[in-house]
# Entry
Amino acid sequence: MSYGFLMDLNRCTGCGACVIACAMENDKVPVAGNNPGPNWRDILTFNPMRHPKLPLFNLSLSCNHCAEPACLKNCPAMAYKKDPETGAVIHFKQLCIGCKYCTWACPYDAPKYNAESGVVEKCTFCRERIVQGLEPACVTACPVDALRFEERVEGKIDDRMRIPGFMPTPLEPAIAFVSPRGERHLPEATALASDEALDAVFESTNHRPARKITLRSEWALLLFTTIAAFMSALFFAFSLGKLELHPALFGGLGAIAMGVTFVHLGQKRRAFRAVFHVRRSWLSREILFFSLFLGLGVLSIAFFPGKRMIGIAVNILGLLSLISIDLIYRVTETEDRPVFHSGRTVLNGSYLAAILTGIPAVAAAVALLKLFLYVRRRYHILPWPRVAVGLILPTAMLIAAADRGRFVVWFAAAAAVVGDLLDRIEFYREMDVTSPRKQIVKDLNFLLHKKSPRAIMDPEDDKRP
# Structure
């Protein structure tokens, strides 16, 4: 048996009783200066600036305990379990490594990172209450019966995917809504401002929520991914006999790359759990493949430099590492952000490998692909220094230098690394994940500038691209 929430948007007043009840039930109330971490339930208002042309209602949201939870699928440490008795998605703090990847993957912002404890927390569905025949604390506390709890019946209410601010996903969230009762009408005597004046007020108050992912917070991942691409290219050139590579250099680079990733974890002593979910999590696969690539690569360089099959195996592991790194960021891809970015580690590694092995035709082909993707993304403001230093200069040097001596190759590789690092910085600066707050801003803009307020409510008139 599974359960779910039913929210009547016509009843909710946004009083916050559900938020307080959740905090009290789960010991989230600050006492004597103690910081218990973020609340697990939030009240979000659609149209908080009260634009008269847009619907106004409140959303009380916590974890939706999805049938196909993204947090459970992507967690590398297997800190999530789906309770078969209640359908609750349970997070186990004692297993969490604090990598925060689940906070990226969940489009409903349900997992909350607690900086004090270094682990993620989330709504438990009040499982202990449910098994005792009680309703969750948030439902019990609602004074207007806007938030209800019932046995989940698939397809009972299908309006849930048409509610502004609540994005449609294939995760099958265990929440349904009673839609607002149509448009709000102002009294005839009310003097309505001009559209230009209303839009100006709307734009001045409708601010996009703060980004969850920033370059400052992810600098360790920037360094790791850049080093990983460089190491993959180095070993490829070494395996073809194009350069000498000392095992201490290769191992040292790998140790630095692995070391900086520990900075990203809230619970560093549990880092070994990061490879526990190889079956489903690309983050687990990345760590496993890179660890094998590093270990076998050092052995190959030190003891088996001429063994072709071992070299092929290491190159395959290096490629799998880069593919896994890129696939980790699938959860950040949206319709507003290109799926295929010029700063992808597979492209960076391939470009460096072509330069280090002295193959100008391949280097030029990869450079043209990277340039096309870069110009497509940045055509309105194109930073030519990045293009010149990172793409044009390295490729031109390889083509122009007939003998392609070591100095030319290494200088070209250094320029390419600088360019790729700048591209990777842009990758992290542009990266973001969706959330209910951001979806509200997006739907508000859509309703105001593209369609009538009823359009997003009516499944028959939903023509969004």
